[in-house]
Amino acid sequence: MQEVNPVETTRAYAFEKWMKAPMPMVTLFKTLDVTRLRRISRRRRLKFNMLMCWCIGRAASQVKEFYLLPVGSKLMRYDSIAVNTIVLNRKGEVSSCDIPYTDDLAVFNVDYLRLTNKVAETCENNDIADSMVIGTSALAQYDIDGAVGMYSGVFNNPFLIWGHYRNGFFKTRLTVSLQFHHTQMDGAHAAGFIGKLQDVINSI
Fold first, then answer.
1. CA distances (Å), 79 to each of 1, 118, 133, in order?
2. What per-residue confidence (pLDDT) applies to 184?
3. Can you tell which superkingdom this protein's organism belongs to (predicted)?
4. Is 24-203 CATH 3.30.559.10?
5. Which of 14, 50, 55, 60 could form a disulfide bond with 112, CB atoms 3.0-4.6 angstroms apart?
């Protein structure tokens, strides 16, 4: 990663207007059709959460704004993306696990299983400092309509939250929320990302 001059990026105006805002985060909600993802999860015995994380990384890798992130008072550009997931560890508490994104789903799956198992056993977070990390939290045991992440003022990373998917007669749907820092992207970029996420799910 490297610091960039905001003036030399497409986020110059947003950096000026939103970096010092007391609440610079924006949240969008979208109900996705995850029928195909659920079917693949069952047929190939792959974790649904892993598939969601890979699809998120895949969609984000196609949106250039995801490679920029305000950190402290600076704007940083990253060369790679990672997806974070929350892990229930052996003590019954939660730990954080960053998984490096790769276009290769099989490789991502191996990394996902290896790293989440390690975090669960050691009860130690796995952090990747040199990638732009997309946070996720899957409340898969609960039927919720949505959730808005907490803005701590420390972490400006984009964050997605979802609960249990809902089965219909012909489709399985999942409502997700996306929280993002307005300096990093505008609503149109975020909505475009969600559209790409649906496209990735449909084509996986």
1. 6, 25, 11
2. 97
3. Bacteria
4. yes
5. 50
